[in-house]
Amino acid sequence: MKQSLEDGKPVVIYFTASWCPTCARNWPALSEVYPEYEDKLTLVAISIDPTDTEEVIRKLAEERGFTFPSTAGKPEIMINFGVSGQATTVGVDLAGNIAFIKPGQALSSNEYRELFAGLLN
After folding, report:
1. Could you say which residues of the chain have pLDDT below 70?
2. 90 forms bridges with which residues in the sheet?
3. Structural domain for 43, as ranges
4. The total number of structural domains that make up the chain
5. Alpha carbon separation from 71 to 18, 43, 46, 74, 108 (Å, rounded)
């Protein structure tokens, strides 16, 4: 994350899990919006389920057609960001401060656009 902030890009982290139904509703919206913002911010989806290995996440991304980066993670990273569950979107501004936390919600493509645009201002 520090790398992106030094490169002048805010960061969006999407906490997910392969089995999460709300996450499954967000993946298409993130996939739609990400190409519009990939040069302006860094987005990564991190699974918080320890059984979601890199292989599980890779297969999920292929099956669901993710256009955004995704990776396996550990529940501790979620706790470090003050997040209590999956399907949560966190924005980190250029100063390294958490600009927003949208917990456990299915968001539309336009709602993601509004969040991302607000992070860039």
Report:
1. 1-7
2. 13, 101
3. 2-120
4. 1
5. 11, 11, 5, 10, 22
